[in-house]
Automatic annotation (TrEMBL), chain A:
The lineage of its organism: Eukaryota, Metazoa, Ecdysozoa, Arthropoda, Hexapoda. This is Ribosomal RNA processing 7 homolog A (S. cerevisiae). InterPro entries: Nucleotide-bd_a/b_plait_sf (IPR012677), RBD_domain_sf (IPR035979), RRM_dom (IPR000504), RRP7 (IPR040446), RRP7_C (IPR024326). Keywords: RNA-binding. Residues 189-210 are annotated as: Disordered. It comes from the Eukaryota. Gene3D superfamilies: 3.30.70.330, 6.10.250.1770. Belongs to the RRP7 family. Residues 67-180 form the RRM domain.
Automatic annotation (TrEMBL), chain B:
Pfam families: Nrap, Nrap_D2, Nrap_D3, Nrap_D4, Nrap_D5, Nrap_D6. This is Nucleolar protein 6. Residues 26-38 have a biased composition (Acidic residues). The keyword Ubl conjugation does not apply. Part of the small subunit (SSU) processome, composed of more than 70 proteins and the RNA chaperone small nucleolar RNA (snoRNA) U3. Residues 190-321, 328-467, 472-634, 656-853, 856-995, 1016-1145 form the Nrap protein domain. Part of the small subunit (SSU) processome, first precursor of the small eukaryotic ribosomal subunit. During the assembly of the SSU processome in the nucleolus, many ribosome biogenesis factors, an RNA chaperone and ribosomal proteins associate with the nascent pre-rRNA and work in concert to generate RNA folding, modifications, rearrangements and cleavage as well as targeted degradation of pre-ribosomal RNA by the RNA exosome. It is found in: Chromosome; Nucleus, Nucleolus.
Length: 285, 1155
């Protein structure tokens, strides 16, 4: 921990006040249990997170309801390894899934060696912990909350080294591997495009019951801009049929409109001046 | 007009028309200061006064209608129509007219002042009338005066023969601008003049200062009684003042009235009764100083007496011309404001209000102005006239030749004075105190004002009248003299006798004349103008000896350089063996060399630097020339004055590398870029390359640390080599190489329909293209490095980073299909980012590059501005650097109160001024490159800005390429950042303006304080391990050297580039803690990160899931559990995320004070 004296002072203050809460059971929060986490064994700082049994309407076989606990408000520095570390005392953790917000499905993963299509989860996050057995999950959720779980057993991973690896990896890409990965991806992509097209075509053909799907093919692309253009053209046509500035009252009206506009502009300018005046713009010295 | 009065007016009209009319007209005068515009307009403009009554009559009919339309909607009423018509004819626009009206309301002397003054003046008259005649005193015996505690305010002549006997003034007059209702400033000065009876004088008093001595004694005598009277505000003192800085003509200055104590100041002077001294004796070619026989004419001495003799007549002429012409008075006020904002109307030789009024009267007389002109038209005519005429060659004259009087000819005047403007008597030169350059400065400012007036954009009014431009902001370089000793020594050693005698030993004007002449000659065509900033008029207590003869305060001499010639390294003189050549050689002495030039001519010349000198050093040639001239010609050494202009030049150098400046690197980059772009076009690729654009700041000359051809030698020790690239080493202690930037290029491919619609697939295809490009370049023997996002090519030492743009990219990112199955294109976060990078930034880069080529100071000013903003810990997230560049560009392009300077320092001062004084909430920034945006579009943008203000970003910057004004500043800067910057800017500006004029070399180091910031505004400070600060050499305090070496041109290794752990760490923190805190750091080598917690995080809340992140549960005072922010949790998080980067985190115990 940092050495400044102030930290100590604040610590004392907070112990005085928090002590009674510490000994009690922590309050619940909207059905969640409040858990304590510590980064290191000897760290004085306690991080509070929320935990609950996992139970949702949409099921996912990788997140079995009875064996999964759901954690939220996890600090950004929590890694998969550290969370496994913290919960290993309750049993074997099979899977850990991080999301930025609760989700019943699995997080998308990067399949490529080179391209990061899915950015890592940022900020305070939620996690799904899947235990091997049901009772392990229960044990974890029922554990007394006054003993904080410890995330890191040793020094946290060096960020600097991580970045150095990242840089070196980028600087010395295996170009042949990259080329072949791109080629195979594009081949797959073309294949899938082609099959999508095929299936579209198939739809148009007679199916088993003798039905044919008919789509309108007017040749006009279904685009918003085209749509707007058509509407505009129609409006123009409509306008051409009207007489403008023809009758005397119309001429009078347009003159009046002009004057009104002049005045409106004047009023606007006046408003602007008033605004400038407010910010004491006209005091020259 | 108040609504109430309007109401009563309307009722009055319907009841009885005649009665209401008188009431309306009666009330009109009282309403002089009211805001109702139509009424004011008819008040301000004489010609329409006839219409005024008519309009009020028509009001009777349209009364009811007017009430209906008064709310700003509907059809305008009759007098509104007249007003609009008038505006159209006589003014430029509504806004301009309204602004003038507002300004006049603020500047006109208040009615109450005149009333208070009139009352005081009556009392003063009685006081003067009751003064008793004194005994006769010998002038050489002033014991009687000393007894009263008064020291005579001028230096007496050596042969003080003569006697002084006081008799009461025969008349007391008021005059000056105040009497004509055309005075400005705070406090306003009122001139009161006593007319001394002729019985006091002898004919011989005109010789040898005797008259001036008597005048001074007269005032001293009056002061004795004035001191004891109730005519001054108790608690204030009467003082002597050297009006217009003229030591020969001291006056009394006092505060007349308790109620106007702060607003009014009376200056009491004395003139002799007319007709006693003959005007013919004071013509310029006569000498009235008998003690110096060798001097045959004393024009300035003559003029200072003559000025008193003709005062009454001149006042009368002005009174006749101004009379009741309110428009003329208004114009005089406006011109006075204009002059005062540029400090042109201060000190000895100023272009003061009197000269302005006389010239307006002159223009009236010569029919260049007429009675029906509005103040706006008079202004325009005045500036036009002044910018076209040259009073130094052919000055105007108010005198009319008559047969029986032979007036001195204009040639006589021009022979004796720099600037000539002959008064109505034909004997007095009104501008006798002016030097040539002071007139030329006014002339040039007039031309500039006229330009601004014609430009007529929203800022021109502000620029002309409202922006105060301190002397330091107006010139490229300024010399500041403080030491009276230095000045007087220079005069003793080198002033011609003629000058010393003529000016009766007044140091400042003599010195100014010598230096002005010397600099004009020595700097030649490097110089376009010299300007003089006089110290304020000296004032001193009655009992002190006069301080007006010596330099008292700071005398500033500004140099406005000529951008075409100021940077040349050689001054070519005339060819040798000619009289001119000899003279040249004599002037420059040992500096002079005989040189053969390319055209074959052999000339005397002075070499100041060699041809390879970088621009930064070339700028400083002027300083060297000035130093040489002052020390060799008048013996003023460089240590005794301050040369303002290069105190911040250290920031415009790459001081860690030998003999390099950012500008040189940028030029080299441009050359390489041209060749490289050709290389790219020549490649054979599956798709053709359509265009290549550079988007790096170095291309725009605005990067403080641009990429260079050479690379750091340190890399060789701390990096490994793998293939063609240097890679980082993980072990060891001192292992991270210094930061090396790349040059970013955007390459547009030709249009093809084959691009897939899926962005992921496109990324793969682009990567495939990178592979192709790399392969092609490898064939040309250039080193490359491929990544999935870009490819780097090493060419002539520069690392070009290429980003590919393809036709469908932005469309793909924008495409959506709505519920009706219709294809739509909508902006998304990614599409905007891509559009910025691939479309907007290249355009902007081109435009800003153009600007940097047109204005030499643009690039360096951007560098200073960027370093200033970043040194106050605002990095890209808080203030995008492109926004800084755009603001600087705006400053160069929009209406400015004075012309653009070519030295970065004065432009940087103006930038600080802009940052500190602009209210971004009401002012849109429209950067109009090459005037591409026409007036209508401009007006449209402004209207859009005004109507949608609440939804637009705090800083609104529109460009020709983005008229919505949100592109660059949508996310930042925020209002608190702008407010804090404004505060910092005004503090920095104050510091600069105080420090810059200080003599000696210290000012440069003191000024660096402006580029440091306290860490107290933050809740916590993260100290980083110095080892990971790869940009440490960019820090302001860095003194070491970083050896660099050029690479072999082909197949070199690609250095470690763009590796900046600090910025990566800050980005990491921002991504993870954006809900709780803001992070501040200096990207240029800063090793501390300031953490500011957001207010919404600092508030305690009930225990809720939505606010649980980063907080801790606690028991509140009432026993309920609540959530409190937990700084220690965040701090531990910062530490873990920054493992190996963070040294320590210090929590601020006193709490943060950001604003």
């Amino acid at each position: 921990m940092g050495k400044p004296q102030f930290k100590q002072v604040k610590k004392k203050k907070s112990t005085v006040r928090v002590e009674p809460v510490d000994s009690e059971v922590l309050p619940e929060c909207e059905g969640y249990k409040i858990m304590r986490l510590k980064a290191f064994k000897d760290s004085p700082t306690v991080h509070f997170v929320l935990a609950k049994e996992h139970s949702v309407r949409d099921k996912c076989h990788r997140k079995p309801e009875n064996r999964t606990i759901f954690l939220r408000s996890l600090p950004p520095f929590v890694t998969e390894e550290s969370i496994r570390n913290a919960f290993s005392q309750f049993g074997t953790v099979v899977d850990v899934f991080f999301h930025s917000s609760p989700s019943s499905s699995l997080p998308p993963t990067n399949s490529s060696l080179f391209f990061e299509d899915v950015p890592p989860v940022k900020g305070f996050k939620v996690a799904y912990l899947v235990f091997e057995k049901e009772e392990q999950a229960n044990r974890a959720i029922l554990a007394p909350s006054d003993v904080p779980l410890v995330l890191f057993s040793e020094k946290p991973p060096s960020t600097l080294n991580h970045w150095i690896d990242e840089y070196n990896g980028k600087a010395t890409l295996d170009l042949d591997a990259l080329r072949s990965e791109v080629d195979s991806y594009m081949a797959d992509y073309d294949q899938s495009q082609r099959s999508a097209e095929m299936s579209k075509k198939e739809e148009e053909e007679e199916d088993a019951d003798g039905w044919v799907t008919v789509t309108k093919k007017s040749g006009i692309p279904r685009k918003e801009s085209v749509h707007n253009k058509i509407i505009k053209r129609q409006n123009n046509k409509l306008q051409k049929t009207q007489l403008v500035n023809f009758y005397r009252f119309q001429i009078r009206e347009s003159k009046m409109n002009h004057l009104t506009k002049l005045k409106e502009k004047f009023e606007e300018d006046k408003k602007r001046i008033a605004q400038l005046k407010e910010s004491r713009k006209f005091k020259p010295f | 007009m108040t609504p109430l009065r309007k109401e009563s007016m309307a009722i009055g009209k319907t009841l009885e028309s005649s009665a209401s009319e008188s009431e309306v007209n009666g009330s009109d005068d009282d309403d002089f200061d009211d805001d109702d515009v139509p009424d004011l307009a008819s008040e301000g403009d004489q010609p329409v006064s006839g219409v005024k009554r008519k309009s009020h009559e028509s009001n009777n009919v349209a009364g009811a209608k007017k009430r209906k339309t008064g709310d700003g909607k509907g059809v305008p009423s009759a007098d509104e129509l007249i007003f609009l018509k008038e505006t159209e004819n006589l003014f430029q626009s509504n806004v301009f007219r309204l602004q003038i009206t507002e300004l006049l309301n603020e500047s006109r002397p208040k009615k109450s002042y005149t009333r208070h003054f009139d009352e005081w003046f009556q009392r003063f008259k009685t006081f003067a009338d009751n003064l008793e005649d004194s005994k006769e005193h010998e002038i050489n015996n002033l014991k009687w005066l000393k007894k009263q505690g008064i020291h005579i305010p001028i230096f007496l002549p050596d042969n003080k023969a003569g006697s002084f006997k006081f008799s009461k003034p025969i008349r007391v007059l008021t005059g000056g601008p105040f009497a004509r209702g055309a005075s400005v400033g705070s406090p306003m000065t009122v001139h009161v003049t006593m007319v001394m009876p002729r019985t006091m004088f002898k004919k011989s008093d005109k010789f040898d200062l005797l008259y001036l001595a008597k005048r001074a004694l007269y005032l001293s005598h009056v002061a004795i009684y004035l001191k004891q009277s109730d005519l001054i505000v108790p608690g204030t003192d009467i003082k002597f003042v050297a009006l217009n800085g003229d030591a020969l003509k001291p006056c009394l200055v006092l505060r007349p009235n308790q109620k106007t104590a702060k607003a009014l100041e009376v200056i009491v002077s004395a003139v002799p009764q007319a007709g006693f001294f003959k005007l013919t004796q004071f013509t310029p070619e006569k000498s009235n100083i008998t003690t110096a026989d060798e001097v045959d004419c004393t024009p300035h001495y003559n003029s200072s007496i003559c000025e008193d003799l003709v005062l009454e007549e001149n006042e009368k002429t002005l009174q006749d011309a101004f009379g009741t012409n309110q428009n003329l008075k208004d114009a005089a006020i406006l011109i006075a404001v204009w002059l005062k904002q540029r400090s042109l109307s201060e000190g000895y030789g100023s272009f003061n209000a009197d000269i302005v009024c006389h010239y307006l009267a002159h223009m009236m007389k010569t029919r260049r102005l007429n009675l029906s002109m509005s103040s706006n038209q008079i202004l325009r005519a005045f500036w036009l006239d002044l910018s076209k005429s040259d009073w130094t060659v052919d000055g105007p004259s108010m005198a009319t030749d008559t047969v029986d009087k032979v007036l001195p000819s204009k040639e006589d005047f021009h022979k004796s004075y720099d600037v000539v403007f002959v008064d109505v008597t034909g004997y007095h030169n009104l501008t006798f105190r002016l030097t040539k350059s002071s007139f030329l400065k006014v002339k040039r400012e007039s031309a500039h004002a006229l330009n601004l007036l014609n430009k007529a954009d929203t800022n021109s009014f502000q620029a002309i009248f409202l922006q105060n431009t301190p002397f330091l902001h107006q010139y490229d370089n300024v010399l500041c003299f403080h030491d009276a000793e230095v000045v007087s020594r220079a005069i003793l050693s080198s002033a011609p006798r003629q000058l010393s005698v003529d000016f009766c030993l007044q140091n400042v004007p003599i010195f100014v004349r010598i230096v002005e002449k010397l600099l004009t000659k020595g700097l030649g065509d490097r110089l376009s103008l010299v300007g003089i900033g006089y110290p304020t008029d000296p004032r001193w207590d009655l009992s002190d000896s006069p301080t007006s003869y010596q330099l008292n305060g700071t005398l500033m001499i500004g140099l406005k350089l000529n951008p075409d010639n100021a940077l040349s390294v050689i001054d070519k003189g005339p060819s040798s063996n000619t009289p001119e050549g000899d003279e040249f050689r004599q002037f420059w002495g040992e500096k002079c060399q005989l040189r053969r030039f390319k055209d074959g001519s052999i000339s005397e010349s002075v070499i100041w630097a060699d041809n390879l000198t970088p621009i930064g050093k070339r700028r400083q040639i002027v300083q060297r020339i000035v130093a040489f001239l002052l020390s060799s010609k008048i013996g003023v050494e460089e240590s005794s004055y301050s040369f303002v202009g290069f105190q911040l030049s250290r920031l415009n150098e790459l001081h860690y590398a030998h003999k390099r400046s950012p500008e040189e690197s940028c030029i080299a980059l441009h050359k390489t870029f041209t060749r490289f772009s050709q290389d790219l076009h020549d490649l054979t690729l599956p798709l053709e390359i359509v265009s290549v654009h550079c988007i790096s700041a170095a291309y725009r000359f605005t990067d403080p640390f641009p990429p260079t051809k050479s690379h750091f030698l340190e890399n060789l020790d701390v990096c490994d080599v793998q293939g063609h690239s240097q890679v980082l080493r993980k072990d060891g202690d001192n292992l991270i190489p210094p930061y090396a930037p790349t040059v970013d290029l955007v390459v547009q491919m030709s249009i093809s329909g084959k691009w897939p619609e899926d962005p992921k697939a496109c990324r793969r295809l682009v990567a495939a293209f990178y592979l192709e490009i790399a392969k092609a370049f490898n064939k040309n023997h250039l080193t490359t490095q491929v990544t999935t996002d870009y490819v780097i090519v090493l060419k002539e030492g520069f690392m070009f980073r290429i980003f590919l743009a393809y036709s469908k990219q932005i469309g793909n990112l924008k495409k959506q299909i709505n519920t009706q199955g219709l294809k739509q294109y909508r902006d998304t976060e990614e599409s905007i980012a891509a559009e910025k990078k691939f479309i907007n930034l290249p355009k902007l880069t081109g435009a800003l590059y153009g600007l940097s080529q047109f204005y030499l100071a643009f690039g360096p000013t951007c560098v200073l501005a960027k370093r200033w903003i970043s040194s106050h810990l605002f990095h890209e997230t808080h203030f995008p650097s492109i926004a800084v560049e755009l603001l600087v560009a705006y400053m160069f392009l929009t209406s400015q109160s004075t012309e653009i300077a070519m030295q970065p320092l004065s432009m940087f001062l103006r930038f600080l001024k802009m940052m500190s004084s602009t209210n971004w909430h009401v002012e849109p920034v429209i950067v109009n490159f090459n005037d591409t945006i026409d007036k209508e579009t401009c007006a449209g943008i402004e209207k859009f800005f005004n109507t949608n203000r609440e939804t637009l970003p705090p800083l609104f910057i529109a460009t020709p390429y983005d008229t919505t004004g949100v592109l660059w500043t949508k996310k930042a800067p925020s209002i608190p950042v702008l407010v804090r910057l404004a505060k910092l800017a005004s503090a920095s500006l104050r510091q600069c303006e105080e420090t810059l004029p200080l003599p000696g070399g210290e000012s440069s180091s003191i000024l660096m304080k402006v580029f440091t910031t306290p860490m107290s505004p933050f809740h916590a400070v993260i100290r980083l391990d110095k080892r990971v600060v790869t940009r440490r050499y960019q820090a302001i305090g860095f003194d070491g050297k970083m050896p660099m070496k050029k690479l072999r041109t082909s197949m070199g290794k690609i250095s470690v580039h763009g590796f900046d752990p600090v910025s990566k760490y800050v980005t990491l923190l921002e991504e993870n803690y954006s809900d709780m805190a803001l992070f501040f750091y200096n990207p240029y080598g800063g090793d501390e990160i300031g953490v500011l917690l957001k207010p919404q995080y600092l508030t305690g809340t009930n225990i809720k899931v939505s606010t649980f992140d980063g907080r801790k549960p606690e028991t509140a005072d009432d026993g309920n559990a609540i959530l409190k922010p937990s700084l220690e949790c965040l701090v531990e998080g910062f530490k873990i995320l920054g493992a190996d980067l963070v040294e320590e985190i210090i929590v601020n115990s006193t709490g943060a004070q950001f604003l």
